[in-house]
Amino acid sequence: MLESLPVDRRTLFLKSLNHDEAQFFRDFWPFWAREEQLAPEGNWRIWLFLGGRGAGKTRAGAEWIAEGIREGRMRRVALLAATYADARQVMIEGESGLKRVIPGATFEPSNRRAGLSVFVIDESVLVVYDGATWVDYAAIMVLQNVPLVGVNTSADATNKFAVKSSAVLFDNVGNGVQAKINKAASADSASLLYQKGYSGRAEIGLTGDDDFHFKVSPDGSTWYGALNIVRSNGNIYVNTASALESTSYPTTGTPQLQVKGHSVFGTSSSYPVRIHGDGYVGIEMSPNDSGGFSFNGYFNGTNVVYRSSSYAWRARFTSGGAYVEQYAASGTAGAAITFSTGRILTNAGHTLLNTSTDNGVLTVGGDVMPEADNTRSVGSSSFRFANGFFGGYVRTGSYVVSALPSAGTVGAGARAFVTDATATTFASTVAGGGANKVPVVSDGTNWIVG
Predict the structure, then answer these.
(1) How far is Cα 249 from Cα 256, in angstroms, rounded to an integer?
(2) From CA 418, how far away is CA 431, in angstroms rounded?
(3) In whole angstroms, what is the distance from residue 213 CA to residue 203 CA?
(4) Which residue in 176, 218, 277, 408 has the most C-beta neighbors within 10 A?
């Protein structure tokens, strides 16, 4: 409108203004701006002012920011330029910059301190000023003493580092890779816990002591020790946490492999093998054992026992010798075979006692004695030996006639020797009370001299 007036009238109008009115008129941007230099009306997010050098782009932006600040619509404004120098020389201190359009505005170059960060939109990168130049923030970022880190999930006070992923990779940098798990005290745990639905099912590591454990659980609360490797010697205990026995064995030392439970396995004879089932040892083989060994039974703490429904057999090993015994259910035992300094051998079904010479089904290398005088029998009236061959004498027991057993009980053919016969007549019935010593034989009814 002012431009449409003749020059003399415009001059007259301007001279009529006082100082304040003239200053306001000078700074009133909507009056001086071209239409394209004024911000568009309406609800918009991006205002693109496309023009060449001298088109008034910087002035239009500066005036728009000044208006927003005066009206309280703007408190913090980001100025984006190709370089820091461009932003300062053109947008702030230039003839159309913010200092020009906002009276009293100041600029403090000292605020460009190290640590100032800027996001570069066209490069999608965050840069930071290090005191000398702008550098990529990712290149200098170091995470130290970060309280929580969550990757694709949320960390918490217990799980301070949490990762939600189908796989996790620890790659090398040209040599080996180690993942370290460190605990404070022996009673603590340093382990890997495997879970289902966040409930433990298996655990591997140092759990409660410094031995290496393999544990499993059906429900996350009840745990079973499957394997324990002893830290001091490398010994392995299966289904038990420690050595089951402390007894010193001929092979000396604790077992290198010890299994608790029903187990079947083959092994070299170089080392002992002990199988422990439900508290009972079944077999022990020493390094010098050879051949096979089969045994159905258990160790009851003292003896190795073969069990049947009504009786058992047991083998006892003591300082006095070794014993194989029939062990009745009542708990009483009767020795069947005892060997100490002697030996018992078998050869094709023959039994050799204290000898290695095989002369028949039973070969004895020494005297055969009952456990007490005048006890036990060889054969019976129902089970008799057909023949007997002796290289020396046969000695029967000595009796007084009154002490002879019943001739009918011992049976015909039984022989004895009496020391008080009244007569020596052959085939006469013996009578006692005399001083004659004679052999006697039973005819099934009486003892007769002969």
Answers:
(1) 13
(2) 10
(3) 8
(4) 277
Q: pLDDT tens across 423-446, in order?
A: 999 999 999 999 999 999 999 999
100: enclosing H helix or E strand: helix 98-101
Q: How many CB atoms lie within 10 A of CB 241?
A: 16
Which amino acid is it at 375? T
Give the pair of three-digit tokens for residue 90.
């053109």
Beta 149-151 vs 362-364: how paired, if at all? unpaired
Distance, CA of 365 to CA of 404 (rounded, Å)? 33
Task: Give the closest residue to 323 by CA, choosing from 305, 311, 339, 304.
Answer: 339
Q: Are 322 and 339 within 8 A, CB to CB?
A: yes
CA pair distance 162, 150, nearest whole angstrom:
5
* This model's pTM is above 0.70: no
Q: Output the six-digit token pair for 148.
A: 């929580």
Cα-only R_g, the chain: 57
Residue extents of the structural domains in the chain: 2-140, 398-449
Alpha-helical segments (H) within 110-269: 137-140
Backbone φ and ψ for 362, nearest 5 degrees, come out as: -135, 120
